[in-house]
Design a protein that fits this description.
The chain is an alpha/beta fold and 231 residues long. Helix content is 38%, strand content 11%. Helix 1 packs across helix 7 and helix 7 packs across helix 8. Zinc ion binds next to helix 8.
């Protein structure tokens, strides 16, 4: 068995690819998915399927209902924006931003990692496509790594030196998809849409769908997902 690593698995394309990369590097994976009250529930089912495909040692789906504390388009407080151009997506902090989400999720992952004796954490953040998500930036990751080593018994006593792995942080969506395809990631089991219908079908129009489709197009590959309307 390889070294243990905790991975935050959302069920999306990025975290599935990160899982495949971590597995390829020989880590034994412990996957954490957070049910934070996201309106796109199909994401959690996708996370279960991806975890199964990755052959993780353990998959925990933890309920932390952030919608009781915060407002975001992703927790149903306002409509998900549609048909935005890449320039518009890159402007400012989007309404789909969930306050402090990555800080909350990484803290949960860190606690579990300390219990497991895992010094390595993987997260599929990306600073290229969503410049508005401040908790996806390298500065945030560096600060959280410092915090991880200050905030835990294992870090302070030196039994574990925590490292946050963010292999996708500077990759374009097309590069992520190409690498994932090489590693055999079953993208048909992943879920990206912020606003799927009752059957889990993706809308094809929200930022997440548009970036995903653009990524597949730029990679010269076909997105195996079904969409509500022709895209
Ligand atoms: Zn969508």
């Amino acid at each position: 068995m390889g070294k243990p690593a905790v991975i935050l698995l959302s069920g999306g394309l990025d975290s599935a690819t990160v899982g495949a990369i971590a597995r390829d590097e020989g880590f034994t994976l412990y996957a954490l998915s957070v049910d934070y009250g996201q309106r796109h529930r199909s994401e959690l089912e996708a996370a279960r399927q991806v975890a199964r495909w990755l052959g993780v040692q353990e998959h925990v789906v933890l309920g932390v209902d952030l919608s009781q504390l915060v407002t975001s388009a992703l927790t149903g407080s306002c409509p998900v924006p549609k048909e935005r151009l890449p320039e518009e997506m890159a402007e400012g902090i989007p309404v789909t931003y969930v306050p402090a989400r990555n800080t909350v999720m990484l803290s949960l992952a860190l606690g579990w990692a300390e219990v497991l004796g895992a010094a390595d954490l993987f997260i599929g953040v990306n600073a290229v496509d969503y410049s508005g998500y401040l908790d996806c930036r390298p500065e945030f990751i560096a600060a959280f790594t410092r915090l991880a080593n200050l905030a835990t018994k294992a870090g302070v006593e030196g039994s574990l030196r925590f490292t946050l792995h963010t292999p996708l942080i500077q990759w374009t969506k097309a590069r992520i998809i190409r690498r994932g395809t090489e590693l055999g990631v079953p993208y048909e089991r992943t879920h990206s849409c912020y606003d799927p219908d009752a059957n889990g079908l993706s809308c094809g129009q929200c930022d997440a769908c548009r970036l995903r489709l653009k990524g597949f197009a730029e990679a010269g590959l076909e997105d195996p997902l079904g969409y509500r309307r022709a895209t």
